[in-house]
C-alpha cells in the first residue's frame, strides 16, 4: 500500500511540474516570423531623452515646417520633454517663443540611427483637444530622389485632437501626396486613443508597407513597380516623434487654448529588422 501511495504522489508531482511548465511557456513572448530587435528606447531613465539616440529638430520653426504649424520646437527643455517613471512625455504649452504662441518638441534619430526595411513598434497615449497633432513617423536619412515628397515619407501614426477616436497611417511620394490630391492612407477607429496606451506598428518590406493598431492590420501600401516616383522606399529612413499644434491638418477646427498643456506619452519605441536587411 505504501509503495502504491508513493508512486501516486510521484505521478501527481510530475503532472504538476508539467502543468506548471506549460503554464510558464504560455507566458513567454511569442516570436512571429524572423524580425529581430535592432534598436529601442524603453525610456526607463528619468530626465531628458538619451542624447545618443535622439536629437531635437528645430530647422523649420520660423516657417511652420511647411504646414503652417503654430508651435516653436525647443531643445532639451524639460518643460516640453521629460522622461518620468518609464514614460516619455512630450508636452505642448501655451507660451510665446519668438514668432510662435506655443512650445513643444520634435525628437528625431536623424544622423544617429536609420534603417532600410524594418518594423517599428511604439506604445503611446495621445492628447486630445482641438489643435493637437501628435505623430510617429519616418523621413529619409538622405533625400536620394530629391526634396519632399520625392524621397518619401512614412506616417506610422497620426492623430488630430478634433477627431479623438480615430488614428491614421499614410505615405507620401512624388506620385502620391496631398499636394496633388493623390495621397494614399487609411484611418481606423480607436475609441481609447486618448485615454489608454495603444500599440502602433508599421512593417516595411521591399514589396509593401503595412500599418497596425494593437496588432490589428488596417492599411497596406504596395510597391507597384512604377519606379521611385511611386515607391522611393528603398533607402534608409529615420524616426520622428513630435506633438505639433495647429497647422494645415491639426488646426482645421482651430486651437482650443483652454485645454493647455497637452502631453503626448510614449512608453517605448522599438525597431526590428529581418536578418537579410541588417
UniProtKB/TrEMBL annotation:
The keyword Signal applies. Residues 1-20 form the signal peptide. SUPFAM superfamilies: Concanavalin A-like lectins/glucanases. Pfam families: Glyco_hydro_16. Transmembrane segments: none annotated. Belongs to the glycosyl hydrolase 16 family. PANTHER family: GLYCOSIDE HYDROLASE FAMILY 16 PROTEIN, GLYCOSYL HYDROLASE-RELATED. This is Family 16 glycosylhydrolase. It comes from Maribellus comscasis. The lineage of its organism: Bacteria, Pseudomonadati, Bacteroidota, Bacteroidia, Marinilabiliales.
Amino acid at each position: 500500500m505504501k509503495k502504491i501511495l508513493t508512486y501516486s504522489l510521484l505521478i501527481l508531482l510530475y503532472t504538476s511540474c508539467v502543468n506548471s511548465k506549460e503554464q510558464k511557456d504560455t507566458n513567454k513572448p511569442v516570436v512571429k516570423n524572423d524580425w529581430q530587435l535592432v534598436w529601442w528606447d524603453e525610456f526607463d531613465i528619468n530626465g531628458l531623452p538619451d542624447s545618443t539616440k535622439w536629437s531635437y529638430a528645430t530647422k523649420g520653426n520660423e516657417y511652420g515646417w511647411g504646414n503652417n504649424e503654430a508651435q516653436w520646437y525647443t531643445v532639451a527643455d524639460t518643460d516640453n520633454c521629460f522622461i518620468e517613471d518609464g514614460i516619455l512625455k512630450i508636452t505642448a504649452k501655451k507660451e510665446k517663443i519668438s514668432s510662435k504662441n506655443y512650445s513643444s518638441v520634435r525628437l528625431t534619430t536623424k544622423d544617429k540611427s536609420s534603417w532600410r526595411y524594418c518594423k517599428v513598434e511604439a506604445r503611446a497615449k495621445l492628447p486630445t483637444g482641438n489643435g493637437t497633432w501628435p505623430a510617429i513617423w519616418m523621413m529619409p536619412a538622405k533625400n536620394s530622389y530629391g526634396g519632399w515628397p520625392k524621397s518619401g515619407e512614412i506616417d506610422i501614426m497620426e492623430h488630430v485632437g478634433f477627431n479623438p477616436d480615430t488614428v491614421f497611417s499614410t505615405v507620401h511620394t512624388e506620385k502620391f501626396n496631398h499636394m496633388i490630391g493623390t495621397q494614399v492612407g487609411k484611418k481606423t477607429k480607436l475609441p481609447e486613443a486618448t485615454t489608454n496606451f495603444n500599440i502602433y506598428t508599421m512593417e516595411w518590406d521591399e514589396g509593401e508597407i503595412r500599418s497596425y493598431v494593437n496588432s490589428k492590420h488596417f492599411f497596406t501600401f504596395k510597391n507597384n513597380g512604377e519606379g521611385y516616383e511611386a515607391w522611393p522606399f528603398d533607402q534608409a529612413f529615420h524616426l520622428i516623434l513630435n506633438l505639433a499644434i495647429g497647422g494645415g491638418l491639426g488646426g482645421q477646427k482651430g486651437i482650443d487654448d483652454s485645454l493647455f498643456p497637452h502631453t503626448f506619452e510614449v512608453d517605448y519605441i522599438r525597431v526590428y529588422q529581418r536578418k537579410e536587411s541588417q
